[in-house]
Amino acid sequence: MSDINAYEGAPEAEFRDFIALLKPRVMSLVVFTAFVGLWVAPVDVHPFIAFCSVLFIALGGGASGALNMWYDADIDAVMQRTQNRPIPAGRVDGNAALALGLILAGFSVMMLGLAANWFAAAFLAFTIFFYAVVYTVWLKRSTPQNIVIGGAAGAFPPMIGWACATGGISIESLLMFALIFFWTPPHFWALALFMKSDYHNAKVPMLTVTHGRPVTRRHIFAYTLVLAPFAIWLGLTSVGGPIYLGASVILNALFIHGGWRILRRDEDAAVADGYAVEKRVFKLSLNYLFLHFVALLVQNWVGAW
């Protein structure tokens, strides 16, 4: 890891730069899925405890983001889509980002334990460790399976939310985990198809770099097929129902069709139209996950009514 810190004459850090260290876009997904996991759990949670639980899970997600940006500052400086992040742009000192990440990690875990329960707090601590150390330090730079195994970190939040309410794990929370876990590879590989040069320049062994685009296309389609049964299975549990099942069947049909279109794409045609299909499937993947968790919420509200 290169030490890319603030230098003499660099622009002074603003509050928004420290917010950017927390990866707010990623945090929004963490907050939403954790909230859904807590909300649909079969245990009534006081609204204040629920609010505090989601807040501290969000801070834990932000801590992971700050630690990731601290360690990855060298490759962020090389990649076009990340080179304006606060550390490589010289607006925030690397040591300040490290301190922020560690402080938020400790604070979020302790406060979640006090607000909800210590099982959920330990789960949050493990998630932060998994993302910051197992994924960022080890997997990301060493294997093309980085996003597959590392995707577990992004799949834990609904399980943590569920644990805040119930103090444990269930088939429902495991299937929410599986939904995000198996969604992550085709989501990021679709992005990697039209961002390959970034990962190549940064020497990150993304599947597109190590095995090429044709192999990546086959993997994307295969994962959409693996994902569908887990997504639909969730609808057959206590948190599911006809609304969720209907939405899941439609969304998975669309995602599988998108994966099939990517699989059948000729690389010359993809280059010629600027990877238009791949970009559309990437956007579809964002809606796919969001709408699945929205459907869980709607199903829960209708069921309660």
TrEMBL record:
Gene behind the chain: cyoE
Organism per entry: Paracoccus benzoatiresistens
Compartment annotation: Cell membrane
Keywords, ordered alphabetically: Cell membrane, Heme biosynthesis, Membrane, Transferase, Transmembrane, Transmembrane helix
A molecular function (GO) term: protoheme IX farnesyltransferase activity
Transmembrane residue ranges: 26-42, 48-71, 92-112, 118-139, 146-169, 175-194, 220-237, 243-263, 284-302
EC number: 2.5.1.141
Pfam families reported in the protein's UniProt record: UbiA
Name of the protein: Protoheme IX farnesyltransferase
Protein's membrane topology: Multi-pass membrane protein
Biochemical pathway: Porphyrin-containing compound metabolism; heme O biosynthesis; heme O from protoheme: step 1/1
Protein task: Converts heme B (protoheme IX) to heme O by substitution of the vinyl group on carbon 2 of heme B porphyrin ring with a hydroxyethyl farnesyl side group.
Keyword Cell membrane in record: yes
Subunit structure and binding partners: Interacts with CtaA.
Catalytic activity annotation: heme b + (2E,6E)-farnesyl diphosphate + H2O = Fe(II)-heme o + diphosphate
General remark: Carbon 2 of the heme B porphyrin ring is defined according to the Fischer nomenclature.
Primary location recorded for the protein, binned into one broad class: membrane
Gene3D superfamilies cross-referenced by the UniProt entry: UbiA prenyltransferase
Top-tier EC class: transferase
Family per similarity comment: Belongs to the UbiA prenyltransferase family. Protoheme IX farnesyltransferase subfamily.
